[in-house]
Amino acid sequence: MTTRWAARVSPDQVWPEYPRPTLVRDDWLNLNGLWSYAITPASRQTPPTRWDGLILVPFPIEAPLSGLGRRLQPDQRLWYRRTFRIPESWTNRRIRLHFGAVDWACWVWVNGIHVGEHRGGYDPFTFDITRALQPAGENELLVAVEDPTEGGQPRGKQAHRNEGIFYTPSSGIWQTVWLEPVPQPCINRLVLRPELNGLRLRVDPSSSRDNLGVLAIAKAEGREVARVTGPAAQELWLRIPEPRLWSPDNPFLYDLEVELMHQGHPVDRVRSYFGLRTITLRTGEDGRARMALNGQTLFQLGTLDQGYWPDGIYTPPCDEAIQHELLFLKKAGFNLARKHVKVEPERWYYWCDRLGLLVWQDMPSGENHTPETRLQFEVELQRMIEARRNHPSIIVWVLFNEGWGQYDTERLTAWVKELDPDRLVSNASGWTDRHVGDIVDVHSYPDPVSPPPEPGRAAVLGEFGGLGLAIPGHTWSTQFWGYVMLPDPPALAARYQRLLQQVWQLHRVSGLSAAVYTQTTDVETECNGLLTYDRAVSKLDPALLNRLNRDPSAPWPGQFLSPPAFLEPVPWRYRLTPPPEGWFQPDYNDADWAEGPAGFGTYGTPGAFVQTPWSGPDIWLRRTFQCPDPVPDNLHLLIHHDEDATVWINGVVATRLEGYTTDYIAVPLTPEARAALRPDPNVLAVHCHQTRGGQYIDVALWVPEETTANHRTPQPGPARP
């Protein structure tokens, strides 16, 4: 399987774009293209004398676009070789060799001289190779790589056996390799910290010599708007008059020009850019914390973005492919991507910055069982933050996913916040929260839920959905799966619409700040993407997705005589111990019962809107309501029950339901219950019995619109096994 862009990939035009858009110099030399390769036993420490063939860099050896498409075994070493010439114009400058990323451990030689080594599969690294270069003629570059894949290091979803939610490994060089001449001293790093009215800027030079200064100029659409001068290695304040803020709806970026000065003369120049934005928590009148962009609450709706490609594995086939996928998300009405246990090439974040897509960045998961693997995890965590922190699109660091390799959560959460105090930190996405950090995050498939509220922490749904639809001719394997398999696009659209209606209800009722749908694309055997794995087919039209994603309207149009919890937290009388006989009769005195808002149950129950916790085996409920005269002909109960429920109206059984549902269902009243209705105050009484698993009860009285009455009456759910 290949994408449409694979045919355009050629050895002389493979990832030609400048790979570091947040720190740009004019002079550079791209080393992507065909390299010689050889595979030897890992025990071999000397370069091979014979080469096996050619490999196309920067695609990993497992990728078809590398020209090989084969696995590197844990006991093997992958060798690369190529030659290059240094341009004459680079004379008298230091020469740096850059690697965007190599998975996992690598050793590098230039002209037989060892210039450095690196461990870490997701972060960029650099060697000064000046001392090893020939002043004229060709230079030889050798790279040796070992990748144990499942050796305990951060690896995300790479696995020896790609099945289920784990996929093909990505070994060797998988991002751009390039050369760059720099003066001495030079600018090593920019640290950009945006605020709403300006930029905090630090320029870290390669030398600690005294009298190094900085000139920084901000431009808007080519026009200078601000400048600042000051010492290097110290934070400077660049105030922006009439600031234009960065947001998904208006992703405005300022250009930044920086000069390093020595004794009043510029010695180095770089270009960058920045967006003015803040990401904070804001507590509403209901006491719940929500995420706020630029001081305003913004509901974030995005997709789980795994970053796998059928032809490039970890490496997108080209820059245009990245743009295409991100533009699809924007057109479909999403404002967020959760980059899932993978760190992308920097140009992916560049396009998120340009197009206006918020990013939650996961730390790639590892096993972290030993002191050595934990140290490596923390080294790579810090590198990830330092390498990507200048991108305004990134607003959240996600430390752990579903408990994979989770340890020392409290310490590491505090450390990440110390490394980057300007972003929010999620200590654990999905089920293993340790009550620290800015976010409490749960996962639920397929139906959405909201985590229990916590003071000072935003509630988010880090994963939900996973609706599967296989498109013939566009599946990676004949064995595929999704969390729920659907037969055709109309069925997918209907189920997706209901999930999004629930999400918007959770946002309104439970204070949910964000939701992440699984997922952007199919990945290998998973067919629960909105796009097929080859990116050839959008299973739902982006315009339809946009409408569904942006429609917070109620899913049950009509009139409510007694509203459901997702519209209004109406008060009910309730008790958790058996009441006296006749408790469901209209003349029963419930003055000594407790009172609480609907719904009742445990947080995390699919489709639930819990306002009053209930965790015992039984609950009894009562409330009064008014009924118009005459009684509407098509009056229904709207009920979400987990598990067995009986409903009475004025002492008459309206329905008895067994098993459980994961959503609200419409149930016609019994003729006897309908006959018991009266214009005076009526009494709605409910008993719900729970055995195990999630639990929830909420009951409403609904008069549907004529156009919806016939197709919004699903059957009650099954008994819990």
Automatic annotation (TrEMBL):
Residue ranges annotated for the Glycosyl hydrolases family 2 sugar binding domain, each copy included: 77-150
Biological-process GO terms, alphabetical: carbohydrate metabolic process
Membrane-spanning parts: none
Entries under Gene3D superfamilies matching the protein: Galactose-binding domain-like (2.60.120.260), Glycosidases (3.20.20.80), Immunoglobulins (2.60.40.10)
Domain Glycoside hydrolase family 2 catalytic: 321-444
Pfam families reported for this sequence: Glyco_hydro_2, Glyco_hydro_2_C, Glyco_hydro_2_N
The organism's place on the tree of life at top rank: Bacteria
Molecular functions (GO terms): hydrolase activity, hydrolyzing O-glycosyl compounds
Residues in Glycoside hydrolase family 2 immunoglobulin-like beta-sandwich domain copies: 237-277
Sorted UniProt keywords: Glycosidase, Hydrolase
SUPFAM superfamilies: (Trans)glycosidases (SSF51445), beta-Galactosidase/glucuronidase domain (SSF49303), Galactose-binding domain-like (SSF49785)
PANTHER family attached to this UniProt entry: BETA-GALACTOSIDASE, BETA-MANNOSIDASE
Family that this chain belongs to: Belongs to the glycosyl hydrolase 2 family.
Protein name per Swiss-Prot or TrEMBL: Glycoside hydrolase family 2
Species whose genome carries this gene: Limisphaera ngatamarikiensis
Taxonomic path: Bacteria, Pseudomonadati, Verrucomicrobiota, Verrucomicrobiia, Limisphaerales
